[in-house]
């Protein structure tokens, strides 16, 4: 590529280098920039190349279309691949989690423009960023229990590091949060209105940088003022923190549901209704995941998630939640089991049994 900004399109990922900054744009707006395996590979290749290039001082990642940064993985493809017994379904998660780890350990500033929908896999390619920028259009969530999955892409690890019991609340319910909530939950670093974000990107592209620090300083001139105006105190999560900590500290999902059901006000009733609509099995698996992740290193947690995902498609809900939400769209998943009381501790524990010997694990090389 030339310094003047010539572009390269690899499937649905666009890359550009200009003025010492590399730009990566997810270009699948019709699917809210949901990730395919080809996109994961293209992102991995670009980041690996830029990390070794001394002319690149920082990487900026964004989503095309104005509606989403990235809405997650391509769940319709998951449904199709599962029915076809396609081995690439397992490989998708191997490569996605390796990409997530690459981002968390990236040696240059990786700057995520989390404008619009940021869910599931979109969180996986943004939470490891040096700088996570949210806007007035940000809609952030880990909604996996609603489709019979669990908060993966390092979700157990980063949710476990939110204040108090927010990790359990966000992971079990899949609640959508906005900019002030994301700042309060430590899932974002700075805030910019969407129109100012566009100005900031234009100013970046018009400048020339000679160091990572100069890129970050340039961005800070835009973000400092606006972030102060979007303080975490404006967050609904901040106002609910005492209730969340009290109710989501329960030892089991039934205990949490009972506490939430007894909570006063609309929040308790709404949260209880959300929990009752989710997969009972995956609620219990998710709670165990987040509790385990609190004492785990990221690399070990990602390996655990791959073990868990292997079991989801074999002893879990498989693709029933995806069918109900995104394929048939009847919104009537037939969860197995249908009741929390019928979820056994032994079945939950089985999700954490690795199908691989330690040295043969597909992510064995992480951190070693």
TrEMBL record:
Keywords, comma-separated and alphabetical: Hydrolase
Recorded superkingdom: Bacteria
InterPro entries assigned: ClpP/crotonase-like_dom_sf, ECH_dom, HIBYL-CoA-H
Residues of the Enoyl-CoA hydratase/isomerase domain: 22-352
Protein name: Enoyl-CoA hydratase/isomerase family protein
Species assigned in the record: Cupriavidus campinensis
